[in-house]
Design a protein that fits this description.
The protein is α+β, with helices and mostly antiparallel strands. It has two domains: 11-240, Rossmann fold (3-Layer(aba) Sandwich), CATH 3.40.50.300; 253-375, Beta Barrel (OB fold (Dihydrolipoamide Acetyltransferase, E2P)). The chain is built from nine helices and 20 strands. The strands form four sheets. A six-stranded mixed sheet has the order 6-7-8-3-9-10, with helices on both faces. Strands 13-12-11-14-20 form a five-stranded antiparallel sheet, with no helix packed on it. A five-stranded antiparallel sheet has the order 15-19-16-17-18, with no helix packed on it. β1 (21-30) and β2 (33-43) form a beta hairpin. α2 crosses α3, α2 packs parallel to α4 (153-165) and α3 packs across α4. The longest helix has 18 residues, at 183-200. The N and C termini lie far apart (55 Å). Adenosine-5'-diphosphate binds at residues 30, 33, 35, 53, 55-61. Residues 59-60 line the site of magnesium ion.
Amino acid sequence: MTAPDALIDRPDSRTPGTGGVTLEGVTKRYGDQVAVDDLSLQIQPGEFLSLLGPSGCGKTTTLRMIAGFEHPDAGDILISGRSALGLPPFKRDVNTVFQAYALFPHMTVAENVAYGLQQRRTPKAEIRERVSAALDLVQMRRFADRRPTQLSGGQQQRIALARALVNRPAVLLLDEPLGALDRQLREEMQLELKLLQSRLGITFVFVTHDQGEALSMSDRIAIMRDGHIEQLADADTVYARPASAYVAAFVGQQNFFTGAVVDDGHGVDSAHVRVRSGRGALAGQQSGQAAVRPEFVRIAAATDAAGTANTVRGALLSVAHLGETMQYLVRLGDDQSILVRRPTPTAPALGVGDAVVCTWDAADVLLFPADAAATDGGYLAPPA
Ligand SMILES: Nc1ncnc2c1ncn2[C@@H]1O[C@H](COP(=O)(O)OP(=O)(O)O)[C@@H](O)[C@H]1O
Ligand SMILES: [Mg+2]
């Protein structure tokens, strides 16, 4: 794909600050429910920022307030440095791409893309040029005369994207735009979207509940919980240094061990294993949680070696081939299992029912204050 000049509008050719979005203490209530809770966030011009979190945490509401479809009960929203409060959606320098593409079924692809420009009485020749540039950008020019019903889901999503890009917005808001696509197509579109975004220099605010999607595309990720931001950082940071057990549980996978805090705050004494951390401590806490990612756990056939910290024996419940990795589920007791992933080429050959021993390095253990609500759905052993 080449980006036609008709659509390129690089940040360096713009007024400084164009495309930045600032939320200042934004709150939105529905009845007595707080959907967005005193949220502050600064999005840089040209940044790819994702709002990530489980269903109901306030992502769509936040996006709709930036777009102007909802109005905050408190706080301010600045787009390109100016308050957008009171501006209707079409007067904001933003465009939205929804999961449901909402294409007009009775119009051709080209007419769908041209619609917004026609509403704004753009000259016909310019409309033609910008529509074909937008269709080139999403590799859909040869479908210009089809109707949306004659297109696949992925093709319809490309048209929805072209329809937004044709307006040359400074900010593009995307609400789970790839959610309806099958996995392979979704991964292709992730790559394309990211390339497009960096080429066009448009600010992207991207809503998703898919942590892999957020990790692979974003400059920064805002992880949301109950209407507020729990952590705002780049992918490396939220993965390696999650700010809370909630973030640790939501980004990637974790084995959590809950129990009394021991070893001067450097360990957690769980039912099956004492977990020691070489990274930080839980000073002054009674109980805590230790978290170890499946990819940091080593597994081998059990020996007679006595259990020490960060070493635990169990029985192999299942082995699954995931392609690049092998995944093992090890039962530690009635109430807990541990998930292990090893690169396939070096994964040990073990069978279901084998006695195994799992170990990990203290350097890979994170400690958090106990937060059961954040880490529900850990790897509990199924009933025996
Ligand atoms: N129009 C509405 N009326 C009442 N409650 C709403 C409305 N829109 C959203 N909510 C509530 O606000 C919370 C946040 O919703 P939403 O922003 O859609 O979350 P997300 O996009 O993260 O799934 C949810 O509890 C939801 O039920
Ligand atoms: Mg939503």
